[in-house]
Design goal:
The chain is mostly helical. Helix 2 runs antiparallel to helix 3. The protein is 78% helix and 0% strand.
Length: 117
């Protein structure tokens, strides 16, 4: 087999991507994960410093992203571990959404909807 034939076979087996593409995607996904985590921590710290409250909106987006990512991994790989991790993130996501709704309605220590500080 020539180098090009091996490359074509590898791309067919890996969904049209070669090993370098897959490694770059893996690195990019890790960078996105840690970057998002860092941004959520920064937003939470700033929120705490200025309002003495932690905003849950960015954490809802963060855990929603993780939940979807692990559900997709479960569907593609059929690994039960991925499903359990996705369900764990889903529980956290639902709790955060519940807190957010309670804050919006004024039932959880926040200001009622439409109220001025």
């Amino acid at each position: 087999m020539t180098k090009d034939e091996i490359l074509q076979k590898s791309r067919r087996e890996n969904g049209g991507k070669d090993i370098e593409d897959l490694e770059v995607q893996k690195t990019a996904a890790a960078a996105a994960y840690f970057g998002s985590l860092g941004l959520c921590v920064l937003v939470s710290l700033l929120s705490w410093l200025f309002t003495r409250r932690v905003s849950v909106q960015c954490w809802i987006v963060f855990f929603g992203m993780l939940c979807i990512a692990f559900f997709v991994k479960f569907v593609k790989l059929r690994k039960l571990h991925e499903l359990f991790v996705a369900l764990g993130y889903l529980v956290i996501l639902l709790l955060l959404v519940g807190v957010f709704v309670l804050e919006l309605t004024g039932k959880l220590g926040g200001l009622p909807a439409g109220a001025e500080p």
